Amino acid sequence: MEQPAVTIIDSAATVRLSGEFAMEATFTIEPALERVLTLPSLDRVVLDLSALSFIDSVGMGVVIQFAQDLQARGIPLRIVPAAPAVHRVFELSGVAGALPFAEC
């Protein structure tokens, strides 16, 4: 897993994840997401999963927790889905409908 790419424009943050999001990647991704949560004046976030080639249940848990943390702060989230084969993991687990995925 590569370091997440975080872009901040005005009060909006975009976090782009790429590669494989498995358990060992959480040590890189979680701190980046936590830094985004502490940005002052943050009013919306895009989580871009389009460059992910794999996600496991731990990675999904991190995405779900990030979405819940933003919701608790009243900050809208839009998730750009991964390729269909990777997005299917969200669908099969039943959480795709509960997350704010953008239309493909």
Which features would summarize this protein structure in a list?
104 residues, alpha/beta, Transcription Regulator spoIIAA, four-stranded mixed β-sheet, 37% helix, globular
SSE layout and pairing:
Elements: E1 5-9, E2 12-21, H1 26-37, E3 44-55, H2 57-72, E4 77-80, H3 84-93
Parallel strand pairs: 2-3, 3-4
Antiparallel strand pairs: 1-2
Helix pairs in contact: 1-2
Largest sheet: 4 strands, mixed
Broad CATH class: Alpha Beta
Question: Considering DSSP H and I runs of 4 or more, what fraction of the residues is helical?
Answer: 25-40%
Low-confidence stretches: none
CATH topology: Transcription Regulator spoIIAA
Number of helices: 3
Shape by Cα distribution: globular
Description:
The protein is of the alpha/beta class and 104 residues long. The chain has one domain: 2-Layer Sandwich (Transcription Regulator spoIIAA), CATH 3.30.750.24. The chain has 3 helices and 4 strands, in the order ββαβαβα. It has a 4-stranded mixed β-sheet with strand order 1-2-3-4. Strand 2, helix 1 and strand 3 form a beta-alpha-beta unit. The protein is globular and about 35 Å long. The two termini are 23 Å apart. The mean pLDDT is 94.
Quick take:
With 104 residues, the chain is an alpha/beta fold.
